[in-house]
Amino acid sequence: MLTFHRSFLSAAALTSLLMGASAIASVSIDFVDHERFTDLGDHPGQYDRNLEILKGSFVDNIGPCLAEGERVEITVHNVDLAGFYQYWRPGPGVREMRDIDLPRIDLQYTHFSADGTIIAEGSERVADLNYLHRGTQRRVGRPETLRYEKDMIQRWSKKTFCDD
């Protein structure tokens, strides 16, 4: 079992820390039985890298939405990356992107207040049925690793944890 943890400081939390208080909002991610996930990449060498990218995306998008002292614990039960790896093709891995091979992440989350009470909790299958139609693939420059999954996590995090 891999467990990841990273803390973020909002401007207010940083000010509090500088003044002696220690109120940090945090996000922890636990990937349960990741060896059994549906699709973590094209080969075992990518699995750890992709878990790190997914973890970072959750932390980067949820952390800034939390108030001082709040924390979110996420347990990821399955990941299915966008596209389908065409293992029969020679050369570097080729992923074919089709509407039916959408990115999905099955997870449970608990959002705690600064005093430890539960603000919200739930189990969700985070998925993006329209991942090919959002313009994500039109980014200019070097291809971004897991761009569809990052965009999906960003939208889910904003909807679930931000007050916008």
3D architecture notes:
The chain is of the alpha+beta class and 164 residues long. It has one domain. The protein is 26% helix and 29% strand. The chain is built from 3 helices and 7 strands; from the N terminus they run βαβαβββββα. The protein has helices spanning 11-18, 44-62, 147-161; strands spanning 2-8, 25-31, 71-80, 84-85, 95-96, 104-112, 118-127. It has a 5-stranded mixed β-sheet, with helices on one face. A two-stranded antiparallel sheet has the order 4-5. β2 (25-31), α2 (44-62) and β3 (71-80) form a beta-alpha-beta unit. The chain is globular, with a radius of gyration of 17 Å. Mean pLDDT is 79; it is low at 1-23.
Topology of this structure?
Elements: E1 2-8, H1 11-18, E2 25-31, H2 44-62, E3 71-80, E4 84-85, E5 95-96, E6 104-112, E7 118-127, H3 147-161
Parallel strand pairs: 2-3
Antiparallel strand pairs: 1-2, 3-6, 4-5, 6-7
Helix pairs in contact: 2-3
The major pleated sheet works out as: 5 strands, mixed
Gyration radius (Cα, Å) is: 17 Å
Give the N-to-C terminal Cα separation. 34 Å
- Specify the structural class: alpha+beta
In total, the number of strands is: 7
Low-confidence stretches: 1-23
How confident overall, as mean pLDDT? Answer: 79
What's the gist of this structure?
The protein is 26% helix and 29% strand. It contains three helices and seven strands; from the N terminus they run βαβαβββββα.
